[in-house]
Amino acid sequence: GDSRLMKQLAEKYRFTFLEAPSYELEGQVVSSSLIRSLVREGKLKEAGAFLGRPYSFFGVVHPGSGRGKTVGFPTANLDSASEVMPPEGVYAVWARIMDCELIPGAGGKMRLEDRTQNRRWEAVLNYGKRPTFGEETKPVAEVHVLDFEGDLTQKTVEVTIGKHLRPEMTFANQDLLCEQIERDIEVARKFFLTQN
Length: 196
Prior knowledge:
Elements: H1 3-13, E1 24-25, E2 28-29, H2 32-40, H3 44-51, E3 56-62, H4 67-70, E4 76-79, E5 89-98, E6 100-104, E7 110-114, E8 121-128, E9 140-145, E10 156-166, H5 174-195
Helix pairs in contact: 2-3
């Protein structure tokens, strides 16, 4: 509801309602719809300015086809269907692997314990339909975490977008795709060096 509805409910149910004025930055009213629109348009720097931080999204890792692993670039396939995503393409990103578990507490209640060590791994995100293989009708988010070994299945990963590297492309064969992935990783590593 809006502030008018909240005022009516506050009067009816006898609670205090304080209306916060709109927040403006550089003459623009900051709103979630504006930020979502900027992300979808690929204007991530502008979205980050309104958020007060770089744009990030979350996804739970689910098993994929395993093709990335067989060609030397294992990826974590993320369920990002409920997230606002940037345009399809390849991005230099940071991945924070969440380690959360429900722990029984006093009185039989559960509490969520976060054992995440807040390490941000350098990574490369491909968000798209993987046209070289012609399998997908909807975009898929897959992250290759650099210098990481281990199984991320069912882990929640926060992906913070650093830089757009290139649009999604179709390659004539798998070898050409792998060569491009190597170049993408090299460009991403150079970008990360400028961020430390």
